[in-house]
Amino acid sequence: MRWVIYLVLMPCMVGAAPVANPPGMGEPSFCPECHAKEQREFQRSRMSLAARTAGFIEEWQDKGRPERCLVCHAPSGGEGVSCIDCHGSQGHPYAKLAMPAACARCHDAPGEITVRSFSNSPASRRGESCLDCHQQGEGFSHDFIGPARAGFLADVARLQLSLRREGGGDTLLIRIRHRAGHSLPGGTTGRSVWLQVETFADGEQPLTRQLFRFGWYHDPVAGWRDETLAPGPGKVIELPLESIARIKSIQARLIYRFRPGALDEADPQAVVLDQAVFALPPALGESR
Fold this sequence. Notes:
By secondary structure, the protein is α+β, with helices and mostly antiparallel strands. The chain has helices at residues 31-34, 36-43, 54-62, 70-73, 83-87, 101-107, 114-119, 122-125, 131-134, 282-286; strands spanning 135-136, 143-144, 157-166, 169-178, 192-200, 208-219, 223-227, 235-241, 249-257, 271-279.
């Protein structure tokens, strides 16, 4: 009887950047022989380069290059997710992946509740799945798309401004609604959605400027805190207005950021989700 012993070498990731697939790991060489189309499609997705994107590397290095991040971003030691990371290494025939359980392995990681928030969303109650929004193409397409794909975030969120007048003062009501099937932003702590609200008189410079951040926070003592925008009815922010007699208009912008940091820090990929202008009638200012 002849015995064949297979030796699998695990790459050393501690203190090292994600590396190209070592022999025996990462993308199986036999997959493209029958699934060349699927491989080409998947290579267009951000998942295939999950450990090589500028946003991930920046955040990963800032946090001290923890090995636990690579469990999802480079499970097999390559530049990102590979075939076997989702489909397993048992060989053909591969079982059809169950949604959303297959996504939850990484998209319910610490600092992320994408799948959990989807399970309580209107999209889930309508019977939709992750692939209804995140798969481009037909059949067994592996071209998975997300916010980094140009145009994906178009019309995903809306701003609505209104004014409430009471004896105690005037309040700006800002309603944020989005149609994502999960909390916005999805993903981990590096991503955020910012609301910028500015009031204007006659000049180009704003009288006031206020910022609100939505996303994940990590407190050294309390741990992770979820401040994302939940799916469903939306969120209303009440903003008291002072010196309303001077205000001629109010401008609000909703901005999606891919990189950690404040709103004024550079992020070439940042996307304006929506913007709204509320003009105050002259009589309103004169009456105060």
